[in-house]
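Recap from last week: sequence in, structure out.
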Amino acid sequence: MKPSFRRALLSAAVVVVMLSMCVPMETKSNRTKVQVISWWDFTSSEPLKQLKAKFEELNPDLELEYLQVGSGYADKMLVMIAGGADLPDVMMLAMDKIPVYASKGAIMNLDKYIQKDYKDEMKQLFPVVADALTYNGSFYAMPRDITSKVMFFNTKLFKEAGVAIPDEDWTWADFEAIARKMTRDIDGDGKPDQWGFYFRKYMDGFTHWLMQNGGGLCTKEGKSLIGKPETIEALKFLQKLAVDGVMPTETQARQFGNAQTAPFIAGRVAMVEGGLSTTVDLKNAGVDYVIRPLPKGKQRVTTAFVNAWAIPSGAKRPDLSWRVLKFFASKEAQEIALMSGMGLPARKDTNISAFVKIRPDHKYLIESLSFSKPFPSPVYGVDFFKMVEQEFDLMWLGQRSVEDAVKAVEKQAADILSGKF
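Predicted structure tokens:
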């Protein structure tokens, strides 16, 4: 037996043991249990609890049983599926993993179910959703929710500085001017310790800036866009803000905590990007904030990251699995996702009136869906993203030029995006 195969079987066995140790939620007699696995702690997740309750109300013959695999979820699930272990009926999956799973035959093609049972409802999905859930023209997942980016303003800091929060039509130039005004030296040591803006140096932290300028990260088909002049121009814009101290370094930001919102919550960053889940963090922390769209570049664009539900290949009861997926993509479930803070709805017919009534500026989260484009997710995108992050590390610190960082990326891009590495 080859060592690699032995390791795969051992890993699969470990996952099976982990699943057997999961504590299911209370069972109901005379119902068929359908297992749903995710990386979330179902004992404390309000969205999952509400989805379970509504599903069982609408499907009195079925009971949802949640399972959890935490660290390394995506890799462990691939090993589990490949190893032939007993599989859950439904699995949560991030959109950037869909092409990988689909290309490996690890999740089911859903076209036959959609054509038979969901074709008319497909018209209700935002276009960005359909793009995110397909591979080679076929559907392999159904939507959980959407995360689209908006800008959050720390109300307290803006009031203290006497700086007006911009209107919805603000531009990159407005953004830069405001970010510089909100950068301050509080302790008088000559260095900023309150910053105008912050974003994590992950791909989803800055890809939308590249797209707003007409550039991008890469295509869904696996072509790098890093070398485009428009991409380079946008990177120089962001790098200058970082080098000028308008943004904290990652080391400076993480002194307040690991979450992207941590320096914002601590009152040390005036503006931060985020989605619907950011509102939950800020509400829980008691931080006053205002929401606006992202500043407009050459075009108004924001990225959408679509989380999803899929059926593992080899699941023994795919028809039951489909009933769960269809519910998760339903109007009722999408309204639960919105109102519980799980994410923005994937459907255009979702009732948003209660959501906007809570806060009028919630409308900007909803409106962002109309100009969202999917976060790029080629088959080998994860490997490409890791490489880009590594090559850009010194660039954000001003220790490497944008041109040199881009050249280093482009030198490796074609091979990595084609799987030749």
